Amino acid sequence: MKKTILGGLAALVCLGMTALNAPPARAEQTIYNTPLPSTIRVAIRAENPSGESDPRGRILWVQTVPFDEYCEDVLPNEWVPSWHIEALKAGAMAVKMFAWYHHLHPVTIDGFTFDVDNTVNFQTFRYWSRQPETNAAVRAVHNAVYVKPNGEIIELNYRAGYRNSPNWQYRNAQKMAQWGSEYWAERGRNWVQILQFYYMDRTLRWI
What's this model's pTM, rounded to 2 decimal places? Predict the structure, then answer.
């Protein structure tokens, strides 16, 4: 019996030492321990023959952009500025949370470290392409976030989807349909209801 007890104590000591020597668990990045970025690093890629930034083009430089201005210069290129304001607000939230998540998960390619690039690899960014309608949507959701119930910051993915359709298939895939946001806005849903339709197990918080 004495041998068994000593063996158990030795095992506990070993387990304790293992726990002490193990690397600390990485804390989840939440709205409670991670501030909204003030800037974001955007890799600018070379243009293709049509004059559009090429998702496969080489990286020319990395531009540091104020975070709010980045969102303003993405939204009119991902959503249509003439769409209903509630669709634009839903889009502004998706653009914002996608950018925030990638700001926390930078990448290094060809010696350049950045958060996002300016193409559809991430979100289409065109400097100073902002529009009054999309700017208003970005400002409307400035103090709002759409996160996991524990506040964890995650990317909100989206796809074009199909016109004149709720795009149920994207709801099941945890992606918002851009055309779907306009579909629901035209039918009286506000931006929060649109987000709730496409993203499961997410919650609105104010910061």
Answer: 0.87
